[in-house]
Write a structure and sequence with these properties.
The chain has 202 residues and is α/β, with parallel strands linked by helices. 50% of the residues lie in helices and 15% in strands. Helix 1 packs across helix 2.
């Protein structure tokens, strides 16, 4: 069936992110070995609540303090949290106007209010090509939950088989495939631009 819409993840598909930068900052400011953060980090219930907008950053940073057993003030937690960003992925950014000229173009990202506000302001021009960006903390749903993909397809009024979805997380790709979306994984070896060029001929 013909593809009518392209749906892109943001982190490491459109915008570069690296959680190691977050941990490195907290490690330095707390004088705690970085391995301590790597060993205790997980996408736990509180992390998911934060991404669904069920708790704010103050509550989440309190959880982090308990999880990592360190004490930082709110500004230090926040500054470290926004160290996440690297640089926009130029090969994808450069292709967005072309995609948008021939297909409906949307984004779907799991993120929280703090990071969403940051990229909305910092990358306003780069993200202007998207007709709509679905943000987990705003819709109260996150990948790879069935309801998340259902929400997007219903909102754009398209059946899943008419949507091409690219994400760098295998779990999210598999979840989308189970829902019926044409999903492919972006990797270091196979970038979003290469997948789109091969699949759509752009």
């Amino acid at each position: 069936m013909k593809i009518d819409a392209v749906l892109l993840d943001l982190g490491n598909v459109v915008l570069g992110v690296d959680f190691r930068l977050v941990f490195d900052y907290w490690s330095k400011i707390s004088q705690t070995p970085p391995e301590h953060f790597y060993s205790k980090w997980s996408i736990d219930a509180e992390y998911q609540y934060h991404e669904k907008g069920l708790i704010d950053f103050k509550a989440y940073s309190k959880h982090l303090s308990e999880k990592f057993q360190i004490t930082l003030n709110q500004d230090q937690w926040l500054k470290g949290w926004n160290k996440l960003w690297t640089k926009p992925i130029t090969s994808t950014i450069d292709l967005l106007p072309k995609i948008n000229s021939e297909y409906k173009l949307y984004a779907l990202t799991n993120t929280n209010f703090i990071h969403a506000e940051f990229f909305k302001q910092t990358y306003k021009v780069e993200l202007s090509h998207f007709e709509k960006i679905y943000i987990s903390n705003e819709i109260g749903l996150r990948k790879p939950d069935f309801e998340c993909y259902e929400h997007v397809c219903n909102d754009i009024s398209l059946p899943p088989e008419k949507v091409l979805f690219l994400d760098d997380t295998q779990e999210h790709v598999l979840g989308a495939k189970r829902f019926g979306i044409n999903a492919q994984q972006v990797t270091k070896e196979l970038g979003a631009n290469q997948i789109i060029s091969k699949t759509l001929g752009l």
